[in-house]
Amino acid sequence: MRSVVLHSAARCPGCQLRPRWCICAGRREIALDLEVDLLVHHREQYRPSSTGNLIKRVVPAARQHFWRRERRMTVADVQVPGRELWILHPRGEPMPAGVAPSAVQILLLDGSWRETSAMAQEIGNWGRTISLPTIGASRYWLRDQADDRRYSTIEALLVLLRSFDLNEAYERLREQFELHVYASLRARGHKELAEKYLADSPVPAAFPELLARLNEKRANEPA
Known about the structure:
By secondary structure, this protein is α/β, with parallel strands linked by helices. The protein has one domain. It has seven helices and five strands. The longest helix is centred in the C-terminal third of the chain and has 21 residues, at 167-187.
């Protein structure tokens, strides 16, 4: 499933949702010991459902690099000296044990499965390709995932934070992610599905006032 940005539809420049469903009031910045970089397929930057854009909004130190097949990038465009570069991808080797987050630079691939597979083939020799343990069903209810090893970009980062025992950062990032999913479901008109999503979510406890505002009935709005 894809979101389409209509030029005639006004969107918040921050969260990229329509103003009725804007969640910028719930934005909380997160600082990480990890160096986080995003290699973003150029089409992904315009998709409101993009969790790579969400990472950049809530982890300001994260860097975005936009990938186009016709414009070749090199590892020198991305790599940070003094850190080992890990490229997260399900086809990689298991995450090594005993590595400190401060020693690692993470490169997250952001795009559709087909797009990120093509990107992974091109940059596979830039660093170590690392796979992460599965975490059960994806909570990214905005796009269908083909199997239980495919997650959204931000979910890959969440698994990594949990694997590094960065539990406070994990909880804060999960709250931001699930708020984004909930509001996006509401913006698409999926009210019942959105309420079902909240049943297993930290969002109601983390953002009670914002949720109350989002659920306020507006004039000329259907029930």
